[in-house]
C-alpha cells in the first residue's frame, strides 16, 4: 500500500526565509509526483509536476526535486512571502492511475 | 478555457436526504477523478471515470455512493441517505483525453462542500 508522508506538518516562519518542505513515499514504482497548494476553503492549485524521468522542476521561486531511489521529494520555496501562506500537498502517482496525497504541510509566513 | 467546474459549491442536507454533486471537466479532458477531503484530513481517492465507464472505484464506499460520467453532460457523484460522516469537501479533477492517464497532470476544481445536519 502506497503511503505518502509530509514533514513538517506545520511551519511558521518570518518573511524572507528560504524553506524546504519534505515528502516521502513508500512505493518506488513512481510515474510522477505533483505538488499542490491549497488555500483555506479553496481548491487545489497545481504548482509543479515531476515525471519519473526527471529530477527537478522549477517555477519562479519554487523548485521541486525528486529522488526515486530514496523515495523523497522536496519543495524549495525561496524568499518566502506572506502570500505563500497555505497548505502544500504532495501527491504520488504510482502503479495506479490515481494520485495518493500526503496530509500536507501548513505554512504560515508572517511579515 | 474554463477550469474544472464543480457545483454546487456548498450543499446542506439533512440526514437521509440525497446529495448530487456535479463536475464539468476542462474542455478536451475525458478523464475525471473524484476525491474526498474530510475535516483536518488529506484528500482520499474515490473513483476514476472516463466517458461512460468507471475505471477504478476502489475508493468508493460500498453503499450509498455512486458516480457516473455520461456521454453528454457533467460527471455526477451521488450520495444517497446521507449521514453526518459524509460531511466533507468533494473535489473533482480532470486530465486530458490524449494524455497517458498514468502521467498526465491533474487539474482540480474548487470543490463542493457538503454539510449534513
* Molecular shape of chain A: globular
Can you tell me the overall shape of chain B? globular
Backbone CA Rg of chain B: 14 Å
- Largest beta-sheet details of chain B: 7 strands, mixed
How many alpha or pi helices of chain B? 0
Give the biggest beta sheet of chain A.
Answer: 6 strands, mixed
Please write the string of helix (H) and strand (E) elements of chain A.
Answer: EEEEEEEEEEE
Low-confidence stretches of chain B: none
Euclidean distance between termini CA atoms of chain A: 41 Å
Mean pLDDT of chain B: 91
Written description of the protein model:
The complex is a heterodimer of chains A (111) and B (117). Chain A has 111 residues and is mainly β. Chain A has no helices and eleven strands. Chain A has strands at 4-7, 10-14, 19-25, 32-38, 44-51, 56-59, 62-67, 72-77, 86-93, 99-101, 105-110. In chain A, the strands form two sheets. In chain A, strands 2, 4, 5, 9, 10 and 11 form a six-stranded mixed sheet that branches. In chain A, strand 9 and strand 10 form a beta hairpin. The radius of gyration of chain A is 13 Å and the shape is globular. With 117 residues, chain B is mainly beta. Helix content of chain B is 0%, strand content 50%. Chain B contains no helices and eleven strands. Chain B has strands at 5-7, 10-13, 19-24, 29-37, 43-50, 53-56, 65-68, 75-79, 88-96, 107-108, 112-116. In chain B, a hairpin with a 6-residue loop joins strand 7 (65-68) and strand 8. The termini of chain B are far apart. The model of chain B has no long low-confidence stretch (mean pLDDT 91). The chains are: A mainly beta (111), B mainly beta (117). The interface between A and B is medium-sized, with 24 and 24 residues.
